[in-house]
């Protein structure tokens, strides 16, 4: 992409040579590929469609292409009008005495485009801008950030090792998102022969069914969603469910309690499943909620009090004092200066 930027900006003798050698009477974006051309030109042809999406031109002398350069701000005119044209008309061809020749433009493009008045910087050259950068100049960092696809899975695995989670919980979560939890169907895939049965109903025990789909666990998810004023997403994916909880608040961060809520639900669902499977205790959502609240109380009282008021508060219809008892946490009423203790409900000290 850097090569294409240098080539299109015409800032060197090398760029001018390539234009004269390969483009001549054609715009660089429509020059057909020829395998007899040089390896450098081959690399430019491979990247040009991607790189052109981030190029924008400000008008000065009007020497850029009217059809194939992006001076409108969205796309080149040839792409907006779906025209396969090889004309080499410059933007200044549609000017008259330093301003737009509207009558000539109307004979060429539809009325909505003809009415678009793009400012002209008289006495200056056309300037190329890299839209992926805040400064308008190309940089490898901004180019990479523009084209890369951020991995949700990587962020998820980073959240798993949160300092507020015990190592035992983190290891379990890592195994869960790597599909290494020994549920019945997973063991059957490994060659073990035995019937599969969920601990709360007669359905087959799979990862998605155990942790999301069955009605008992859905009651747990719904219980905590109501406390935080959320409407649960309809998904069978653990990854989507965790990211829903993380990004459903405008204050999403590693410090927010909503980052930990799904992890703790998954952990106590697993412990309740093991208790029901190996100890014969009936599967109960009340036990999951009770263990969750007890763990959260322990976690919050072990953490140092957060003294900043109003940091990372979720979108709740209830006040903090009203919400605290719902989570099984005692809230002391007092003046605003003394609210640092129970604000730990929403913010974890890292």
SSE topology:
Blueprint: H1 2-9, H2 13-23, H3 39-52, E1 55-58, H4 77-80, E2 95-96, E3 99-100, H5 102-106, H6 111-114, E4 127-130, H7 140-147, H8 152-160, H9 167-177, H10 184-189, H11 207-213, H12 215-227, H13 238-247, H14 261-279, H15 285-302, H16 320-326
Antiparallel strand pairs: 1-4, 2-3
Organism: Sesamum angustifolium
Domain Reverse transcriptase zinc-binding: 138-221
Protein name: Reverse transcriptase zinc-binding domain-containing protein
The number of distinct helices, counting runs of at least 4 residues, comes to 16
Percent strand:
under 5%
Largest sheet: 2 strands, antiparallel
**What is the strand tally?**
4
Domain Reverse transcriptase zinc-binding: 138-221
InterPro entries: RVT-Znf (IPR026960)
Pfam families: zf-RVT (PF13966)
Protein name: Reverse transcriptase zinc-binding domain-containing protein
Question: How would you characterize the overall build of this protein?
Answer:
There is one protein chain. The protein has helices at residues 2-9, 13-23, 39-52, 77-80, 102-106, 111-114, 140-147, 152-160, 167-177, 184-189, 207-213, 215-227, 238-247, 261-279, 285-302, 320-326, and strands spanning 55-58, 95-96, 99-100, 127-130. It is mainly alpha-helical. The protein folds into two domains: 2-147, no CATH class; 152-345, no CATH class. The chain has a two-stranded antiparallel ribbon. A two-stranded antiparallel sheet has the order 2-3. Helix 11 packs across helix 12. 24% of the residues are buried.
